[in-house]
C-alpha cells in the first residue's frame, strides 16, 4: 500500500540578519513544462506514463520516483491540488527523497529560518494515512528538521528557526510515513 505526502517546497532558508533563499528552484518552477510527471515519466490523460519528462532544475532524485505536478494537468487518483505558489509542486511517496545543493553553505552556529508549505496527498480520498517530512542539511554533523505530522489535505505553512550545527552544503527532503 502506498502512502503519499505532498509537499511544495517554498523553501526559504535564510540567515536571520538578512534574507536570502538558499534553495535553488524551491517551488520546482523551472524548467516550465506542460505536463505533470511521475518520476521521469510524464502522465498521459489515460493514466499511463511515457518516458521523456524533464525533472526540476537543480534537484537530484536519490530514491525513485517522486512526482512533479503541474496545475491543471493532474490525472488518475491524485487530489488535483493547486500549488500554493507558482504552478508546480512535488509529491514524495514512502521513502522517496530529493536533494539540492545550497546556493551558499550554512555557517556553523548561525541562526536560520526554515519554512515551506505541506499538504497530504490522499489519492482522491482513498488514503489518509498521516505522514511527516524530514529535512536534512548534509555535513558531518548537519541539522535534521522534522515537520509536524500531516493529516490533512489543505496547504499548511510550516516554519522553524534553527542554529546550523555544521557548514552544510546540501539539503535533502524525504517522506517519513507515520501510521495512525
Structure in words:
The chain is mainly β. Helix content is 0%, strand content 40%. It contains no helices and 14 strands. It has strands at residues 4-8, 14-15, 37-38, 41-43, 49-51, 60-63, 67-70, 88-93, 97-101, 111-121, 131-138, 144-146, 156-163, 170-177. The strands form two sheets. Strands 1, 2, 3, 4, 5, 7, 8, 10 and 13 form a nine-stranded antiparallel beta sheet that branches. It has a five-stranded antiparallel beta sheet with strand order 6-9-14-11-12, with no helix packed on it. The radius of gyration is 16 Å and the shape is globular. The two termini are 15 Å apart. The mean pLDDT is 78.
Note the topology:
Elements: E1 4-8, E2 14-15, E3 37-38, E4 41-43, E5 49-51, E6 60-63, E7 67-70, E8 88-93, E9 97-101, E10 111-121, E11 131-138, E12 144-146, E13 156-163, E14 170-177
Antiparallel strand pairs: 1-8, 1-10, 2-10, 3-4, 3-7, 4-5, 6-9, 7-8, 9-14, 10-13, 11-12, 11-14
Labels describing this entry:
single chain; 180 residues; mainly beta; nine-stranded antiparallel β-sheet; five-stranded antiparallel β-sheet; 14 strands; 0% helix
Query: What's the overall average pLDDT, rounded?
Result: 78
Strand percentage: 35-45%
Radius of gyration based on Cα positions: 16 Å
- Spans of at least 5 consecutive residues with low confidence: none
**Helix content percent band:** under 10%
The largest pleated sheet is described as: 9 strands, antiparallel
The first-to-last residue Cα distance is 15 Å
Based on Cα principal axes, name the global outline.
globular
SSE class: mainly beta
Secondary structure: number of strands: 14
Task: Quickly count the helices.
Answer: 0
Helix-strand string: EEEEEEEEEEEEEE
Amino acid at each position: 500500500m502506498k502512502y503519499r505526502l505532498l509537499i511544495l517546497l517554498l523553501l526559504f532558508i535564510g540567515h536571520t540578519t538578512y534574507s536570502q533563499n538558499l534553495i535553488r528552484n524551491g517551488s520546482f518552477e523551472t524548467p516550465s513544462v506542460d505536463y505533470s510527471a511521475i518520476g521521469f515519466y510524464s502522465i498521459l490523460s489515460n493514466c499511463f506514463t511515457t518516458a521523456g519528462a524533464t525533472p526540476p532544475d537543480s534537484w537530484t532524485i536519490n530514491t525513485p520516483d517522486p512526482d512533479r505536478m503541474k496545475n491543471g494537468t493532474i490525472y488518475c487518483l491524485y487530489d488535483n491540488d493547486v500549488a500554493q505558489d507558482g504552478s508546480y509542486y512535488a509529491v514524495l511517496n514512502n521513502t522517496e527523497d530529493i536533494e539540492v545543493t545550497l546556493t551558499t553553505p550554512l555557517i556553523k552556529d548561525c541562526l536560520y529560518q526554515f519554512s515551506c508549505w505541506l499538504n497530504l496527498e490522499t489519492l482522491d480520498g482513498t488514503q489518509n494515512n498521516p505522514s511527516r517530512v524530514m529535512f536534512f542539511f548534509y555535513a558531518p554533523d548537519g541539522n535534521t528538521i522534522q515537520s509536524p505530522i500531516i493529516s490533512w489535505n489543505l496547504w499548511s505553512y510550516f516554519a522553524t528557526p534553527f542554529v546550523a550545527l555544521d557548514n552544510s552544503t546540501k539539503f535533502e527532503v524525504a517522506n517519513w510515513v507515520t501510521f495512525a
